[in-house]
UniProtKB/TrEMBL annotation:
<keyword id="KW-0119">Carbohydrate metabolism</keyword>
<keyword id="KW-0456">Lyase</keyword>
<dbReference type="Pfam" id="PF01081">
    <property type="entry name" value="Aldolase"/>
</dbReference>
<dbReference type="GO" id="GO:0008674">
    <property type="term" value="F:2-dehydro-3-deoxy-6-phosphogalactonate aldolase activity"/>
</dbReference>
<comment type="subunit">
    <text>Homotrimer.</text>
</comment>
<dbReference type="InterPro" id="IPR000887">
    <property type="entry name" value="Aldlse_KDPG_KHG"/>
</dbReference>
<dbReference type="InterPro" id="IPR031338">
    <property type="entry name" value="KDPG/KHG_AS_2"/>
</dbReference>
<protein>
    <submittedName>
        <fullName>2-dehydro-3-deoxy-6-phosphogalactonate aldolase</fullName>
        <ecNumber>4.1.2.21</ecNumber>
    </submittedName>
</protein>
<dbReference type="InterPro" id="IPR013785">
    <property type="entry name" value="Aldolase_TIM"/>
</dbReference>
<comment type="pathway">
    <text>Carbohydrate acid metabolism.</text>
</comment>
<comment type="similarity">
    <text>Belongs to the KHG/KDPG aldolase family.</text>
</comment>
Length: 198
């Protein structure tokens, strides 16, 4: 069952990719991004995209250029997540049939991203704007445009963010830090899934 969480595995190495990826999938989290400032991220993406084809959507985070999009696509990635709203990156992602989740913080960035074809929006850093920013944005955004809150969100405030109009979350260090065992990641993932509002 797909949960409204994108796991952000910053610092993941290819040696740990399959075990950590499997632990997340087993817990019900089947959307996984490997930020491009991780060690050998394209190899981690390739390994997981091959092993988990049909089970999970694997992609890259911290994607900043059109060239990055091409490299991720060539590695088998199906999802592009960025900290910013670059129309060229969004359009190239969509041209290649990939999902695109650009980072936004203002109404201008949101609508620039939507006009470029974004699949969903990544409110980042969510904790700096707070729930009030999301509520204000949701008042003007298309109802069918998903918004994922990323940065400073977790089980303690999932319900509040959902009530404000979030459709999901990107979870990083509270789910995975370099060196964490697959078992510990799986345990935290199960706890997060359990904390989602029914």
């Amino acid at each position: 069952m797909t949960q409204p969480i994108i796991a952000i595995l910053r610092g993941l190495t290819p040696a740990d990719a399959l075990a950590v990826g499997q632990a997340l999938i087993d817990a019900g989290i089947d959307r996984i991004e490997v930020p491009l400032n991780s060690p050998d991220p394209l190899e981690s993406i390739r390994l997981m995209a091959t092993a988990f084809a049909g089970q999970a959507t694997i992609g890259a985070g911290t994607v900043l250029t059109v060239e990055d999009v091409a490299r991720v696509a060539d590695a088998g990635g199906r999802m592009i997540v960025s900290p910013n709203a670059n129309p060229e990156v969004i359009r190239e992602s969509r041209r290649r049939g990939l999902e695109s989740y650009p980072g936004v913080f203002t109404a201008t960035e949101c609508f620039t991203a939507i006009d470029a074809g974004a699949t969903g929006l990544k409110l980042f850093p969510a904790d700096q704007g707070g729930i009030g920013v999301l509520k204000a944005l949701r008042a003007v955004l298309p109802r069918d445009m998903p918004v994922y809150a990323v940065g400073g969100v977790g089980p303690s405030n999932f319900a509040d963010w959902f009530a404000a109009g979030a459709q999901g979350f990107g979870i990083g260090t509270s789910l995975y830090k370099p060196g964490d065992s697959a078992e510990s990641v799986g345990q935290r993932a199960r706890e997060m899934v359990a904390a989602l509002p029914a």
